[in-house]
TrEMBL record:
Residues 562-581 are annotated as: Disordered. This is Cytochrome-c peroxidase. PANTHER family: CYTOCHROME C PEROXIDASE-RELATED (PTHR30600). SUPFAM superfamilies: Cytochrome c. Its main location: other. GO terms for molecular function: cytochrome-c peroxidase activity; electron transfer activity; heme binding; metal ion binding. One of its GO terms (cellular component) is cell envelope. It is found in: Cell envelope.
Amino acid sequence: NLQAPLPDLTGIVRNKNIAIKLGKALFWDQQVGSDGQACASCHFKAGADGRVTNILTPGLLRVDANGNPDPDTEFGGTVPPSPAATEGFTAGNQVARANITLTPDDFPFHQLVDKDDRNSAIVYSTNDSATSPGTFDGSFGTVIPRDLNEYCGDPEGNIFHTQSNLATRKVEPRNTPTVINAVFNFRNFWDGRANNIFNGTDPFGRRNEQARVMILNGRTPELARIDLNNASLASQAVGPALSDFEMSCAGRQFADLGRRLVSLQPLAQQDIASNDSHLSDLVHPSGKGLRASYAQLIRMAFEPQYWAARGNFVIDNSGSEPVLVSNSQGYTQTEINFSLFWGIAIMLYEAELISDDTAFDRFRGCHEPSCSPAIEPDESALSEQEKQGLMVFIDKGKCVNCHKGPEFTSAAIHLQAENQEEGLVERMIMGDNQVALYDNGFYNIGVRPTKEDLGVGAVDPWGNPLSFTRQYFDILLGNNAPDPFDVDPCTFEVPVLSDLPCDSAQQTNALRDRVIAGLERDAVDGAFKTPGLRNIALTAPYFHNGGAATLEQVVEFYNRGGNRRGSESNNNSGFGDNASNLDPDIRPLGLTAQEQADLVAFLKALTDERVRCDQAPFDHPSLTVSNGHLDQDSNNDNRADDILITLPAVGASGLPFSQCWANSGDLFNQGGPL
């Protein structure tokens, strides 16, 4: 009975139920993206992906010693530390390139002679990632209203191509996280760049000072700011739609997407079950698509001041303040505001995707006010092995230190309120036994060397740090920070001063003095958002790089104390001036083989059967996705032909039991309709 934290949409949304329907249509519609790409194309299995072909991408997020981009465009073993013979190959000895089908032998991406000893000889190691294929890499050309096609230039295929050099779909640089329960994250994306505040246009909240939407003030069209709290899902939703790795030709704008979609029949090419939990009353008699156009759904869902203006306009961003200009060749208000409609509608739909009914939930019961009537604990809901695994999770495994609360993540909203135990910034002893400040819910656990991906230690397009910790340092030094937030040093695990009772002003002043003197450090480079663990057995591969194919490999990683080399005192997980950013709990755990098996069994008990079987609210329209390419171009479009697979439409009752996804925690044992 978790309640989704959402912004106050009074004055923007006029009919929430219609907005949810609009959001589901936008999320699943293959007409939305370039090259037939929908949001759901990478989120169709338990809110994540499950493909194994054309999912390999090289280390494109690598930086140099100064933190500047230094992408690695070559696939295969990273030499050193990987042996020289592995260069250009996967761990399973395939030629590493785009469009290959990975096998169990290719995982994990960091392999040792002794999997329990992180300092044993390295057999294989790569900065490649296993993620999701998106679009081809052509540049955006134009759209024609009512035309199903989008016109993009020929792809270059410099990195992603077949053996005969035909362009393939590009593959994203990070593993695809699930959208289920993502509404509880204070920030979204692995690096947290999907801001808690939605500005109506892009993922960056108040960081984008030019962000405006168009409103009708009486009868006068003008520009206005949108500033919606607890709307990270909306910030996240507007990112992939224009990403040339995920859903778009390079250079497409939201107004172009709006121009293409507003007059189209939603989901026109896809089947919808007659008992779809959200769309059943709108299904077209043919069973394909909806009876209303996108324009009609927008008008029913949103207040007229956001779509009723007459005429065409452009937004001039050349000056210090954006200016709305009437232009007969410009865009309608609906098209200009399409990012607003898109973000809010998809946020409201994804807020429906709450998974809270697992064997663990029944074992635990619920006497919270949200549970009415109360749910009594059921001791029989967990097996004896799962109960032993729960004890490992809480105690010897130290899992609960980061995967806490009902969401099983410290990146969740309710755990980050400043008036509770922890805030957005925390100060604690790190893996090298030295104190540092860090972003709560974001940890460097030593999966890969920090320089390969800075995570929350990176910056936004305007050069501002994504990290709240680094913004807090700027504030202490008298500078401005783009994000609005407060920090109470009295909530720190390790306060600056040991005086009791704690005085926030005194603590802040003491911390400021230490920052000015260069005595305080941060631990944010190479840190990533802690994922929730609900349905984890359905969402392989694991980690931000997708470098583990099974839950067993994940547990082995933690049991040996991560992938970094050296002793505890020789911590090499940091970057730049920081010798260590490592989470203090990443050290050898000493779990027995039985304890590891018990822990995996408990993690599988976090699966919601509704998610496993695509039952309401997790049901969906049919979806056709790319599953690699043939090395041929039969239609002469300079793109390798897609190999397509279609998932059937599923109604509220879900898949037949025999077709449900396997609760395996194994990328290569998925079951289901794939």
